Sequence to fold (108 residues):
Amino acid sequence: RQAEYLCEGGFYRGACFSSQQAIEKFVKWALLKKGWELEKIHSLRRLAAIAENFGINIPLQDNEIDFIDSVYKGRYPGEEGLLPLGTPTQKDAKRALQVAKKVVNCLE
Fold:
């Protein structure tokens, strides 16, 4: 909901980051329920691989995982924007929201 609010307000950078955070936290929550021991991981690609080992299917295409991973990678080190190509656009924010909703709906 925070990501949606930020997107509607034109805060696309924040919307992308909130979407990435929602995905990361939801996947970690699902893993913890299965007995996984919490690790400091931000990569959705890595979390999806771990989830698969625990019998959890994250229904995302490779390009969606790469896109969401570009959001967190763009924050370290602190650069302008979040994505490798600069500041996120409305299209980027809507895409991040779509991916987040897909993951949340699957894991709820």
